[in-house]
Amino acid sequence: MGIRMASYAAFLFLCMALMSFTIEAMNVSYDGRAITFNGKRKILFSGSIHYPRSTAEMWPSLIKKAKEGGLDVIETYVFWNAHEPHYRQYDFTGNLDLVRFIKTVQNEGLKAMLRIGPYVCAEWNYGGFPVWLHNIPGIEFRTNNAQFEHEMKNFTTLIVDMMNHEKLFASQGGPIILAQIENEYGNIMSSYGDDGKKYVNWCANLAQSYQVGIPWVMCQQDNAPDPMLNSCNGFYCDQFYPNSQNKPKMWTENWTGWFKNWGGQIPHRTAEDVAFAVGRFFQYGGTYQNYYMYHGGTNFGRTSGGPYITTSYDYDAPLDEYGNLNQPKWGHLKKLHEVLKSIEDVLVNGHRRDVEYGNMVTATIYSHGGKSACFLGNANNSYDASINFQNNQYNVPAWSVSILPDCSNEAYSTAKVNVQTSVMVMKENEAADNDDESYNLKWQWRHEPFEQMKNGKILGNVALSAPQLLDQKLVTNGTSDYLWYITSVNVDDNMWTKKDVQLRINTNGHVLHAFVNGKHAGSQYAKNGQYQFSFETNVTLKAGTNEISLLSATVGLPNYGAYFDNVEVGVGGPIHLVTHDESGDEVVKNITNNVWNYKIGLHGENAKHYEKNSLGWLKTGLPTDRIFTWYKTKFNSPIGNDPVAVDLSGLGKGQAWVNGNNIGRYWPTYLADDNGCSTTCDFRGAYTSSKCATGCGKPTQQ
């Protein structure tokens, strides 16, 4: 499947000792130039590493590589729906052990930024909100609503108290130097009117009420109330300025690449362009910059959002999904950090003067304490400039920044990469005992039943019944991708039993399987970005009672936009049975308001077929090209400590487990469009997610 996952068998032999040591409390504040530590201004390079998108065993290696790459700070969101999947039932175990993650950052000598949100976006399922939140009567998300604010305060307080208890804030001697409340709300605030403005003030007051002794951030929030820091997210933030001269210029998300959608191509952002964006930001007064992502990781289980976000969250980040160095990006940025750190004192304390050369070519001089440092920038996407600067001639390539630490000698150019490119190679498993089982996997299988009614009775547990079609979120509470809609239809007229009948269904997707009288009538999935669709198929009815069972499947819930939480999923209707009378006129039977019975999940999910000791598996007659089938095999743990990937290119669509752990959704049969890819990539010019794409005509992830 091309996803990064820990070799669980191999990791059984690893252990991590969390060292404990005493750090003196630090006064973290800010002024109009930079974040300050005990009054001293600092340039800070930060990188996003989301703890649930890797395993706890990977964290030390990832953070160590981030430090070696020149980072000072590790940033992470806090994922509400992962920690409180059910109302007041919390989980902070395994790769959800937030305290362990922050202490791992501390053990490596780095600082942390904790983006509590608790709305996170992050291409994460439902933006990080637990689905049960949606089903609280009277609730409205992210606005001046008492029910929402009560729940948001409860979770935020839980996290703050946890960090306080473990003394993890910098004011207590811990590594957390910044915290964030809400997330990119300014992008959609206007949709909520005055209640949106009231909500922003409520969020700011809530954050300040905790008195944790560190600054709070509201990203993409131009009206962030004092003393909240507002910051920029985007591919380029050199032209961003905070809403007060008393606040530093901060970039909380420099998008190092982009995410992948099922059926989409693979986006890439060049090392030169990322470095150019960083160089421009620091040329024009920036002092805090965070890479989103520095390590993207994997959307294990059902955590990917979108809809249609892939299991892989590689993001073309400096550390790839597997935790390897993504060269030349990692190395090119490491050198940039080293050069900028070498002139830190001048940048954060110096006087700045800009010189315009025309045609988007500029020079910037910082001077302090008898020292100077200079930038030569060229934002033209095609014109290589030759300029005379302080009586010396310099060539400044298009779309580049050159850094002259002494205003004389060029130490770094964003357009000149002097790092080898890494190429990842997938190798077949060479198991420890070198037997044939590693190569010739022995598969077992079992059928997933789709007959939902027998002798007029529903088989299995019915969650509820209602004379209407319900939003899938309302019934499942987010506990499964799958929901059965089951009803019965009585017909006696020959018009319905002797002629072709068409079943027409309007659904909000994302995937629909239809069954009539226990037989598969057809399946259809939504195209990426077009999640409402109409399904039509011919069916055969019998005289008397007919069973109609519809299985709706989601592929990640929406995670962004105003009122995204109210986007309905599942079978929304109307649902019609259509035939024709003797004169050929269309006759419609509307079954939308039939009594529908709802069953949550697949039988195999509820029976936990993915567990090691589950019974009932068949060893002969292995079916292929057949839906609703479970497959199981075993393999020996590979030799060494390299990352492990599972190639599922022989399968269609579903979910995969290793040792009982859900490693995510797979869909290798959904191919990217044939058009839009390029064999070459010109770093010059503004980046978009469709630029420099690869993988046309291939699975987005296999």
What would you call the shape? elongated
Ends distance = 4 Å
Strand order of the largest sheet: 4-5-6-7-8-9-10-11
The main pleated sheet reads as: 8 strands, parallel, barrel
Helical run tally: 13
Round the Cα radius of gyration to an integer and report it: 28 Å
Q: Name the helicity range.
A: 10-25%
Please report the total strand number as a whole number.
34
Task: Classify the secondary structure makeup into a structural class.
Answer: alpha+beta
Beta-strand content: 25-35%
- Oligomer state equals single chain
Q: Give the low-confidence spans.
A: 1-22
Let me know the average pLDDT. Answer: 94
Summary, kept brief:
The chain is α+β, with helices and mostly antiparallel strands.
Please characterize this protein's 3D structure:
This protein is of the alpha+beta class. The protein has 13 helices and 34 strands. β2 (35-37) and β3 (40-42) form a beta hairpin. α8 (271-283) runs parallel beside α9 (329-342). It starts with 7 loop residues before the first helix and ends in a 36-residue tail after the last strand.
Label this structure with key terms:
6-stranded antiparallel β-sheet, alpha+beta, 13 helices, 27% strand, elongated, 702 residues
Map the helices and strands.
Elements: H1 8-11, E1 28-30, E2 35-37, E3 40-42, E4 44-49, H2 59-68, E5 73-77, H3 80-83, H4 98-107, E6 111-117, H5 131-134, H6 146-165, E7 176-181, H7 193-209, E8 216-219, E9 229-234, E10 250-255, H8 271-283, E11 288-295, H9 329-342, H10 344-349, E12 351-358, E13 361-368, E14 371-378, E15 385-389, E16 392-396, E17 400-404, E18 412-413, E19 444-447, E20 453-454, E21 457-458, E22 464-466, H11 472-476, E23 482-491, H12 494-497, E24 501-507, E25 511-516, E26 519-525, E27 533-539, E28 544-553, E29 575-580, E30 586-590, E31 596-600, H13 603-606, E32 629-632, E33 654-658, E34 661-666
Helix pairs in contact: 8-9
